[in-house]
Design goal:
The structure is a homodimer. The first copy, chain A, is α+β, with helices and mostly antiparallel strands. Chain A is built from four helices and eight strands. In chain A, the strands form two sheets. The first copy, chain A, has a five-stranded antiparallel beta sheet with strand order 2-4-5-6-3, covered by helices on one side. In chain A, strands 1-7 form a two-stranded antiparallel sheet. At the A-B interface, α1, α2, α4, β3 and β8 of A face α1, α2, α4, β3 and β8 of B.
């Protein structure tokens, strides 16, 4: 059984950092469109995207944002974290098969409210910045070790991938 | 055929607003966990969530953020928009069957770079703020009318919904 263990407020030191990686595939483009409702053709329609300034389909900017939140929620601080705010600057498009690495670095702590501010940097596989920002959270004060939830199988129909209504 | 038509930089007037609605179901919890990698049990594990301060499963905060980006990308300005930055303040948890309404309001325009800043407010079905923030985009200068991409069927296996590895 795989476990998720949080890093409590007291355990986090300023300067501590952690990373989280994920690769963009066609699956992420479709699932993010479905879950957000963002069916902009730049993410879904190869032909439309080929005539855009990007020349090919790109990830939803907020998909990179979702990786930042995944890092806060599952790596540092992890379970028990309360998300207060997030700033995101979108620096560069993300293309199919790009692998993003999120790095969070603790930059300030507020002992009274257990608030931690993290610098958030998302780089692509070439080390180029894709997203930069800052997250503010209330870090958990008690240790939590919990079984990592296992997701059900998700299957995507063949027919309409990139198709147009 | 359903179409997406953008609202160009010149068409957007300061004070213009638009809305976009989406309801949180179990499907959104699972798909957002899958696409982001955020399998924090507060979103997926009924039992864990029932012992948390929220008493039940809640949406990923960034799911509400993804609805803001969906509004920018599909309603105003719509196709051709370049996302520059987003700030999000998370105000309140989102629970199953909550219906969120995103409202974007144009608050400033920069004629030289075609930048538009939008106030972003996400309310739940009780009219209570869930997320507030600000988005900065480059609005498209040319009219785009494009077929709305149709997503393939997405099916989620029964067995492991909310289950633990």
């Amino acid at each position: 059984m795989e476990a998720l263990e949080n890093i409590t407020y007291d355990e986090i030191k300023i300067g501590d950092s952690c990373t989280f990686k994920k690769t963009l595939t066609e699956k992420e483009l479709i699932l993010f469109a479905a879950v957000s409702g963002d069916v902009n053709p730049i993410h879904l329609d190869e032909n439309f995207a080929s005539h855009s300034m990007f020349k090919e389909r790109i990830a939803h900017g907020m998909w990179s944002g979702s990786l930042v939140s995944a890092t806060l929620a599952t790596v540092m601080p992890g379970p028990g974290t309360i998300y207060l705010s997030q700033n995101l600057d979108f620096k560069r498009p993300v293309k199919l098969n790009d692998t993003l690495t999120v790095t969070l670095t603790a930059k300030s702590k507020d002992d009274e409210k257990h608030i931690v501010v993290f610098d958030c940097l998302v780089l692509n596989q070439e080390g180029k910045p894709v997203v930069a920002g800052e997250a503010k959270v209330i870090a958990p004060t008690t240790k939590i070790v919990v079984a990592k939830p296992k997701l059900p199988e998700i299957s995507i129909g063949q027919a309409a991938v990139g198709a147009i209504a």
